[in-house]
Amino acid sequence: MALRFALIGCGAIGTALLELVKDDAGLIAAAIVVPAGSEADAHTVAARVAHGAQVLSAVPADGIDLVVEAAGHTAIEQHVLPALQRGVPAIVASVGALSAPGLPEQLEAAAREGGTQVQLIAGAIGAIDALAAARVGGLETVRYTGRKPPRAWKGTPAEEGRDLDALGAETVIFEGTARDAACLFPKNANVAATVSLAGLGLDRTTVRLIADPAVTENVHEVEAAGAFGRFELTMRNQPLAANPKTSALTVYSAVRALRGRVAPLAI
């Protein structure tokens, strides 16, 4: 039997996800949940890549096996928490939203109440399994560096006091904790939040964010050390065509998590 899922959000990530799974026999996009006033765009997407999906303002009370979130902090509070409390499992893509004080605990409590589980995707970064395993044996330091073209930082605090279009060299636009990075750069720092939640936590993970006119990709670097030894990871991700603030790998990660729910063999 096919898995029926409700997609929360129909922006660049949600639309790309639907395009990639539209021919998967084991997956049915049963509903697209968007805020009031956004129905027209969602109907257009549904007609193209999610035939039969209802466009709604809330997750249906029944007929849904899974919720997939791709819409941000407000959507987690409005839709994911109630779904979990009803016993519907969820996949969350907006991991950066969990920098909000108390939100991770609310998700855990809602999943526990509903006897189900919420999965946070790895998104644009790799080695999350190794980082989480290292924490078991004793993790001492974790540092994340995010390097993106200046245009990827437009519309963020990086524009304060500087002209991003005129940068002639790499410029550090933020240095601090993962919690502060995710709060100040919510559309750019999902990776920082993911790395911290897998490792030492939001307040013990150090983060540097860099605007670099010499790069065209989104470059993610993670350095970790502890009882396990140490590792250094560098990933050079192509940005999502519809949104340069997001790596295309974020969409692929969400699709992998979704397909893993129905695959006979998953890793």
Automatic annotation (TrEMBL):
Residues 169-255 form the Aspartate dehydrogenase domain. The active site is at H220. Pfam families: Asp_DH_C, NAD_binding_3. One of its GO terms (biological process) is NAD+ biosynthetic process. NAD(+) binds at A124, N190. It comes from the Bacteria. It catalyses: L-aspartate + NADP(+) + H2O = oxaloacetate + NH4(+) + NADPH + H(+); L-aspartate + NAD(+) + H2O = oxaloacetate + NH4(+) + NADH + H(+). Its EC number is 1.4.1.21. Pathway: Cofactor biosynthesis; NAD(+) biosynthesis; iminoaspartate from L-aspartate (dehydrogenase route): step 1/1. The iminoaspartate product is unstable in aqueous solution and can decompose to oxaloacetate and ammonia. Belongs to the L-aspartate dehydrogenase family. This is L-aspartate dehydrogenase. It comes from Pseudacidovorax intermedius.
